[in-house]
Amino acid sequence: MEMYLIGVNIVVLAKNHNPSIISKDWLSQRGIIKENVVSFTHTPAFSMVETDNFSFYVDLDRLQLTLKNDFVNRVDSLSEMVLSYISALPEIPYTAIGFNYSYDLKIDETIFRRIYCYNNEKLKSLFTKDYRLGSIIKYKFGNFVVSFIVQPDSDNNMRADFNFDCHLSDSININDCIKKFREARESSKSTLEGFFIE
């Protein structure tokens, strides 16, 4: 099996992110964005700042920080940027945080037959002989609930998506959750290896 990390983002939900204060200058002055800004939109309803490598979007309910390229070398900077944002705005009532990792997989699809022991002939009769199989699995990872979705893509490969979702409370601190970002990514990788490699 070959696997390639093709997408990463962190989402932080809150009761009010106050996007009107989030400007490219505000983000730069606080060291959240350290690169040259190539695109910027600032309105009362949302703000979006883009660099060559990152997309930073904030509306009233949601902050989404997305890595656009160089996933292997820049992935850990996402959690540092989100920690800097939260340090700059500790008064915001944050409600949940999510980590999302997407992988492109080159695997033999017959591995699903061995994993799930399904009746290939029955599925061919229900669909067509060219059907393709995927799966959805939910499980716990510390304070996170993880959705692990594997589905066929248009390139005859498979795509695996992991969503690590943590709802915050008095006993679950957002900073502690963000510090699990690297561990969650390593867990997603080892889960894929354990799931597909015999």
Main sheet: strands, sense, barrel: 9 strands, antiparallel
Order of helices and strands: EHEEEEHHEHHEEEHH
Low-confidence stretches: none
- Which strand-content bin applies to the residues? 35-45%
Write down how many β-strands occur, each being a DSSP E stretch of 2 or more residues.
Answer: 9
The number of helical segments is 7
Q: What is the straight-line distance between the termini?
A: 10 Å
Task: Please outline what is shown here.
This protein is of the alpha+beta class and 198 residues long. Helices cover 28% and strands 37% of the residues.
Task: Report on this structure.
The chain is elongated. It has one domain. It has helices spanning 24-29, 71-74, 77-88, 111-116, 120-126, 174-178, 181-196; strands at residues 2-14, 39-42, 46-50, 54-59, 62-67, 94-106, 135-141, 144-152, 158-167. Helices cover 28% and strands 37% of the residues. Strand 3 and strand 4 form a beta hairpin. The relative contact order is 0.18. The longest helix has 16 residues, at 181-196. With 198 residues, the protein is α+β, with helices and mostly antiparallel strands.
